[in-house]
Amino acid sequence: MAGEQKAKAKTEQAKGKAKETVGRAVGNERLTAEGRAQQSKGDARQAKEKTKDVFKH
């Protein structure tokens, strides 16, 4: 399950980066902000999983 959560974190980060890039390209600030927020969510999920790994071992 931990691997699944790590994959979700990476996916979230990638989607966020894509949204941010598209938002910048078309000049859409809302889309850019959504992309940054989605990346942050992915970063937080990844940090949580890393913390869980530290305490497992």
Describe the protein in words:
By secondary structure, the chain is an all-alpha fold. The chain is built from 2 helices and no strands. It has helices spanning 2-26, 29-56. Helix 1 (2-26) runs antiparallel to helix 2. The radius of gyration is 13 Å and the shape is elongated. The two termini are 16 Å apart. The mean pLDDT is 92.
- List how many beta strands DSSP finds: 0
Beta-strand content estimate: under 5%
* Shape type: elongated
Helix-strand pattern:
HH
- Tell me the structural class: mainly alpha
| Low-pLDDT ranges | none
Distance between the termini: 16 Å
Count of alpha/pi helices: 2
Radius of gyration: 13 Å
Mean pLDDT: 92
**Largest sheet, strands/sense/barrel:** none
Share of helical residues:
over 70%
Structure at a glance:
With 57 residues, the chain is an all-alpha fold. It contains 2 helices and no strands.
Record keyword descriptors for this entry.
57 residues; mainly alpha; 2 helices
Write the layout of secondary structure elements.
Layout: H1 2-26, H2 29-56
